[in-house]
Amino acid sequence: MISGVPSYTIPDDEPVEDIDKEDRDNQFTCSQYSNDVYQYLRDLQVQLQPNPNYMQQQIHISSKLRAYCVDWVVDLHRTLSQTYQTSLQADTLFLSISLFDRFLSRKVVSQEKLYLVALGCFFVASKFEETYYPSVDQLLKFAPDVGKKEDLLKMERIILSELRYSLGAPTPLTFLKRYAKAAHADSTVGMLSRFMSEYSLTSYPLCTKYLPSHIAAASISHALRIS
To answer: Where is region (Disordered) located (predicted)?
Structure first.
């Protein structure tokens, strides 16, 4: 648990709805393992959480510059999704920002290299999440000022090495689907909660001080209130 984040324990006498009950006979959902899977993901998110104080060691960049860079990645994701026939998964966007913050937690980056790091994280995330991911040439077509082909490929290797090939970090989107099911959320709530989770990506404090599962829970809760 991250310091300062409140926890809640369900009392023994409080009934808990079995949200997987209707899927018990569906062998493709593997619902009997749902609790174990999400417990593993909750543990994993703690292990792979970025350093909440990493900006203190980043002498060349600020949280404001990070926000501009993340916003640029969001635009890149949207542009690529609209340009090609196969839309990129939202998971690619969320994972790329997770990798970005984890990389910045481990390595000091100059202002000149920040966007190259972000593009490298996006490239790695797209390979991890997508069946058909953008090529280096396609990425550089939309980001010609970031660097050359060899620069992006070198940065990819550096990112993989620094993160020790540990790429499958849970993101708010990982938990949103589960929480939406628990809340019996309709499509409007689902859309609003995803929008709020995506909006949180630009916030350095939110992405580093709060766990992805907490951001997802807050997004669902707020979406339910305003829908």
So the answer is: 1-22
> Which two structure tokens, joined as six digits, stand for 5?
């984040």
pLDDT tens-digit readout, 26-35:
766 677 778 8
Cα distance between residue 164 and residue 12, in whole Å: 41
Lowest mean pLDDT among 27-36, 74-83, 166-175, 183-192: 27-36
- Domain with 143 in it: 54-162
Residue ending a domain, among 131, 162, 193, is: 162
The SS3 assignment for 49 reads coil
Co-location of 144 and 191 in the same domain: no
Cβ-contact 128, 168 below 8 angstroms? yes
| 138 in Cβ contact with 90 (< 8 Å) | no
